[in-house]
Amino acid sequence: MNNTIGERAEMVDYVIEMFLDMYSSFNKDQIIRIDERRTTKIARNILIQANLTREKQKKYKDSLAAQLILELYLESRKL
Question: Other CB atoms closer than 10 Å to residue 9's CB: what's the count?
């Protein structure tokens, strides 16, 4: 991660623009972009520190990453 916009982020920007063109009742300020690239790695580290088995880590990794993304969103709303 070198603070550049990657190909997927550019695709997301394109989809957002298409969405806004289709639904004029929304504006760009209502779209919140969250950088979630590191959430899976953070979730994995949390589960390792909790001494969970690999099987349980695999089971809970995605839901914990989703929780972290939600927390990032909620924190962004506090500002």
Answer: 13
